[in-house]
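Re-run with default settings, no changes from the original entry. Doing this only to confirm the output is reproducible before filing.
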Amino acid sequence: MSFVERWRPETHTFHLPHGETMITLQDVEVLLGISIDDEAIVRKTNLTWAAECQTLLGIATNAVVLKGQRILINKLLEKIDQGLLDGAAEVVVHQYARCHILALLADIIFSDKFGDRMHTMWLQMLRDLRNPPQYSWGSACLAWLYRELYRATDRGVSQIGGALLLVQYWAWFKFPFLCPRKDLPPDDAYGPPFAPSPLSIK
């Protein structure tokens, strides 16, 4: 992504030919529809994560499934694929819901640069699903993205995580000429890639 190459960690901005620009909290709220005004996401980081996964997700872990604070996304998907039985207990329904939410967070907001794991620290914010506190997920999303952009400026790094969908939407919104053109025909409208277009035949 060319925009990542223009990120400067010294200023936390994109350096462009016409000046500096950045993704703001307002951009997060408008483009992703995520709250930026509620309670800050600040919690403990010294919990026993295997026990948290067992209690809140209903997933038994080992050194392969859970590495530090990061759980394999495939384990979440397996839990989701199992589905819910009729008359399932509320605790089981909540575990199932947390797996869904965590998988969505992993896919859209807090993606891992390898794409296969998700930080379980977000589970703390999903503990009470009956009366969940309202958090500023937008602030956490932007902070996570800024951290990933900072890390991506290292010459030895070839991958990046974070809300890259936000970066794409923001770039399209700020620079409309980057958007895919809606008036173009489908790729296969004129046959093979190197076949002459009917529009060019006189």
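The radius of gyration is 21 Å. The chain has two domains: 1-40+142-179, 42-134.
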